[in-house]
Amino acid sequence: MDLINCTRVTEFILLGFPHISGMNITLFIVVLLLYILSITGNGFIIVMVRVDRQLQKPMYFFLSNLSFLEIWYTTAVVPKMLANLLSSKTTICFHCCMAQCYFHFLFGITEFYILTVMSFDRYLAICKPLRYATIMTTNVCFQLALAAWFGGFCTILLQTTLVVRLPFCHSNIVNHFYCDIGPMLKIAGGHTDLIEALGFLIAVAVILTSLLLTVISYIFIISTILRIPSASGQKKAFSTCASHLTVVSILYGAVLFIYLRPSAAHSSFSLNKAISVLNTVITPVLNPFIYTIRNNEVKTAVRKVLQSEVTLRFPRS
């Protein structure tokens, strides 16, 4: 379909969750609480890394980048989702929809790059401990983080630009609770094969490449840990990787299911929505807890901050 004789839509209707009508208030309260927990938990990690000298290490620098990403990744979707749950008019303007789509994937793709960098950091810390400090300098950490952000910015730019240029003329109903590329391609006019192929190539390049690099890093890490003579040494070494490995497993499992398919635009979106809720609402809440509960350095830093706060509020006479 050409843009000639085509009256382009100016807004989209986000279908959301039509099968749970009547539970909107309950879902609103649950999602709002999870969103608040996500912002609070990830913001807490950022503040702790900034204020505690013991946490000013490469691992926690990348963790604070990940937390910053999670805040904006969930903010790109959840506020509009909450507003739609309380409104009978679940519309979003055309340009707002395209912006939401772009930023959602920008932060999502950058998260893969940051997690890959974190696996490389753990590889150096465990497999090359004597050279770790000379390799992972402050400048190198900033360069790696900047490369991850710049890579996320560039990776999704072309596909989003092509989606913006598509003729949306006959339907403006997006079968999702946010502007995802797959449901949008389903209602677009014109030829979408190139965009679908490009999206599949991006998924393969980003998801599988980052996953492969992470798996290779952990093969070397596990091999090194198994050569440590003492059981306590093995446990200590593995504990520094367990949180990262847990987050990687959750994220890659969900994203591989949703995006790594050649024809995402022609699939059923019911199950995709449920897994998208896991990715955009639940996982950002879990990550701060996963990284802090098993981390003795973070727990020690929290205790120090709490003790100093108590001392300030209730000084000894």
From TrEMBL:
Keyword Transmembrane helix annotated: yes
Keywords: Cell membrane, G-protein coupled receptor, Glycoprotein, Membrane, Olfaction, Receptor, Sensory transduction, Transducer, Transmembrane, Transmembrane helix
Segments crossing the lipid bilayer: 25-48, 60-82, 102-120, 132-158, 200-226, 238-260
Ranges for domain G-protein coupled receptors family 1 profile: 41-291
PROSITE patterns in alphabetical order: G_PROTEIN_RECEP_F1_1, G_PROTEIN_RECEP_F1_2
Pfam families linked: 7tm_4 (PF13853)
GO molecular function, one term: olfactory receptor activity
Name this polypeptide is given: Olfactory receptor
Name of the encoding gene: LOC103059462
